[in-house]
Structure formats: C-alpha cells, structure tokens
Amino acid sequence: xxxxxxxxxxxxxxxxxxxxxxxxxxxxxxxxxxxxxxxxxxxxxxxxxxxxxxxxxxxxxxxxxxxxxxxxxxxxxxxxxxxxxxxxxxxxxxxxxxxxxxxxxxxxxxxxxxxxxxxxxxxxxxxxxxxxxxxxxxxxxxxxxxxxxxxxxxxxxxxxxxxxxxxxxxxxxxxxxxxxxxxxxxxxxxxxxxxxxxxxxxxxxxxxxxxxxxxxxxxxxxxxxxxxxxxxxxxxxxxxxxxxxxxxxxxxxxxxxxxxxxxxxxxxxxxxxxxxxxxxxxxxxxxxxxxxxxxxxxxxxxxxxxxxxxxxxxxxxxxxxxxxxxxxxxxxxxxxxxxxxxxxxxxxxxxxxxxxxxxxxxxxxxxxxxxxxxxxxxxxxxxxxxxxxxxxxxxxxxxxxxxxxxxxxxxxxxxxxxxxxxxxxxxxxxxxxxxxxxxxxxxxxxxxxxxxxxxxxxxxxxxxxxxxxxxxxxxxxxxxxxxxxxxxxxxxxxxxxxx
Length: 499
Ligand code: ADP
Ligand code: G6P
Hints:
43% helix; binds adenosine-5'-diphosphate; alpha/beta; 17 helices; alpha,alpha-trehalose-phosphate synthase (UDP-forming) activity; 6-stranded parallel sheet; trehalose-phosphatase activity; binds 6-O-phosphono-alpha-D-glucopyranose; Alpha,alpha-trehalose-phosphate synthase [UDP-forming]; 9-stranded mixed sheet
C-alpha cells in the first residue's frame, strides 16, 4: 500500500536490466510461454513499473527470429508480482546470438563478475568481448530511448520527466548514450543506476583496460547507487584517480561533464512479509531429528562453497560429538553453465561432497545432503524455517539475499542462528549474526560449533534484532530510498533507516 502511494508521486518509470522479469520459452507446439523470475529485484520493481504505467526493457532469455513476434501475457494461475506487467509494457532487446554470447558470457560473466568480486586472476581481458559489450549496451540504450519517446508521446509523462532505472554490471555503458541522445533530441528524463554486485577498490578496477569508459558510462546518470558505503567510496575514488574528477567523499558527490552526480548507499531488502507468510504456510519438509545447517547459493565460485565444505569437514574432525546429530544441507542452483569456471567448480564440489560423505557416513547418517537444482519458493521457505543454522559464507558478495530470507523465515521459537561472511554486504548490515571469515577454515569450523551450542536466550535476542531490521528495511523501503535519492519523493515520504 505504502509503495503504491509513493509511486503516484513519481513520473513513469522505465526499468532497464539484462534479464526481463520473466523468461520466454517455446513449448512443444512451438508457442512462446512466459515464466516469471522470482528474484527480489523483480518483486520490488515490478509494482513500481505497473503502478506508474511504465515500461521494462530487457532480454527475454531466448533469441526470437522475428523480433515482432508477440509476447504472451502471463498465465491466469501466475500470482507473482510480474503477472500484472502487460506484454505491451515490455520492450525486448534482440541481439545476434553470437554477439550476445560474447557480451554475456565473454565479458559480463568472465570479466566484470570476477573483477568486481576482487578475483582478477579469474578474469579474462579481451578486446573482442568488450567490443560486443559496448555494442550490446548501445542496443539497450537505443531501445530504451525509443521507449522513452513512446512514453513521452503517450502523455504518460506529462507532469514529471520519466525516470530511467538501469540495473547492474551488464549495462554500465548504457546511461551515457541515453543521456546524449535525450539531450540532442530534447527529450527530458532522469537517469539512475544501481549495481547489485560490489564495486572494487581502484587498484583492482584499474586492471580493466577500458576502465575510464566504464566510469564515464555510469556517470551519465544523475544518481548511482550501491549496496553499502564502501562500494560508494571505491567508486568515488576511481572517478577521482582514473578520470581526475573533482569529488566530495563526505557527501558522496562526483563532478563530471559540468554536472554533479550523486552516489548513494542503498542496501537492498527482501519482501519480508511475503517470506514470513510462506514460512507460515509451507508444508513441513525435513523429517529428521538432526540439526540442519543450511546453505543456499547459485553454484558460483564467489559463494565460497569449497571453503564451506572444508569447514564442515573440520567441524566433524574437531568436534566429533556432532556426528550423527548434525547435517549440512547444501542447495546449489545451476548457474552460467556455459562458462568454464562454473563447469570446473561443479566437478570440484561433486568430488568434495563425495569424499566427505565417504569419510564420515554411517549406516544411519550422511553428513552432507547436496541438492543441485532449483527448489520452489515453498520448499525454500520450509528449508529456511526448519534449519538450525543458516550458513552464508561467500568469499565476496554484493549483498546476499539468502541471509535476509533466512531470518524472515525463522518464525519458530527458539529460532536458529545466522552465520555471515564479513565479505558480503549483508555482513556489514546484519550486526547480530555470527561473523565468520570463510578463508580461515579452522576458525569457521569453530564459529559453526558456537552456533550449534548457542544458548536459547542468546539465539532469541540475536534473531529478534535481525528480523526487526529486515522487516523495516525491506524491499519496498529500498525502492522508496532509490526514488528519494533520485529526488522523486517529497520529504514527508522519507523515513529513517534502522541501523
Ligand atoms: P545472487 O544474487 O548472487 O544469486 P543472492 O543471495 O543475493 O545471490 O540471491 C539469490 C536469490 O536466488 C535469492 O532470492 C534466493 O531465494 C534465490 N535462490 C537461491 N537458491 C535457490 C533455489 N535453489 N531455488 C530457487 N531460488 C533460489
Ligand atoms: C546476480 C546478478 C544479477 C543476475 C543474477 C543471476 O544476482 O547481480 O544481475 O541476474 O546474479 O545471474 P544470471 O547470469 O543468471 O542473470
């Protein structure tokens, strides 16, 4: 309700993201079908687009030979927030499949993803892949500008200039092109960008040979948002050192091209109440007397899965009293399976799980249960609810929504314990979690032991604080903070973040 009130005070919004909020697939009859994506971004942003009669520009997950082929509406049984997004409000970006592969796998996933997670040894730097990145960004920019003109022409943007909100590392060059064209053709708009992954320090960022172009691209916006202040400061620092911009580190401002660009920490939240509801309604899943330590991640090398498995092995070695009483349930979602690094990681995890299970399994117990695949939202909520420990130990992570979803679903008394890595954005904001350095295998094992033996009253106290913060700073609050940072909200619509 609050969000709906808020969006009436802003102009129409155009959201631009690599993925659309749904994926298109062809069924056996060759007809297109639409499946909603369930991520936090979609849940947060879809209502704003719908309520402002806005548009969403993105890639539909399939190459359409005929770019004018009509997009189907959502299915009648679709109850996700995306269901209300009419096909006419969606602008699909179509790129030649080879070029798209160079852009998505070759540059986004093989260069920016590892580099921005401060893992430069895993990054490849290739001019041909970056060229594809620039061309695909240009394509997104052109489609977005067409969408902008369409909105202005339709009269939807009479009171306020439309707000263009670009998302993530796939589209760091788009803003500048949109701004240039909009200025040339005198079409008013406001531009905002949000990066969902970390922004690295200057000595990592400058390894990218075309680093200046990336900064210039992002500075095409009026406001650039990151999850936490550290990433904002890294960005401001890079603008100063690479481009020689005048900056104000205290107020997070960057001067560029005669304009002042605002930089803001906007930590993303989750649809907290929806997860609580799911936790109340999801059927019981785990019939076991063992304490479950739960890991939920895309199968990605940034998530620290190898270290996590080794810490669990160390726990069983050092604290044999947990044998047959505790098991690790690891859910790993297949991700970016065309990239070699991800294929190799899958092999490594398979082998490690096999080795640890081979070493400790008894006739009545296996220490690790490993699910490689997607689970439904219901099942996910049940796992979160029934776990004794939530283990979120990435080597590096922009925020990590799993940590937040876990606390939302901890509705039972006494609750479980959350362990987070200090190298995730969530480790910066979820102060009452146990902090665990995933690189230090032995001490990580001790943190897990501490969680398993924590007194009830301490568990209750910590979880109450964690839940209170995530309920207040939920995903609606995040969207509202973005609008406020864009200057699209009046003062009385703002409220203080809970620290
Ligand atoms: P990342 O964005 O790097 O994947 P996050 O933890 O921030 O990491 O977000 C992951 C999202 O994917 C969460 O919203 C989570 O609910 C969802 N997710 C993770 N594992 C599964 C799974 N097995 N099935 C369905 N959704 C999942
Ligand atoms: C991270 C990124 C998102 C991306 C998601 C899934 O959360 O920040 O932009 O959509 O991973 O990755 P994929 O490559 O499948 O889109």
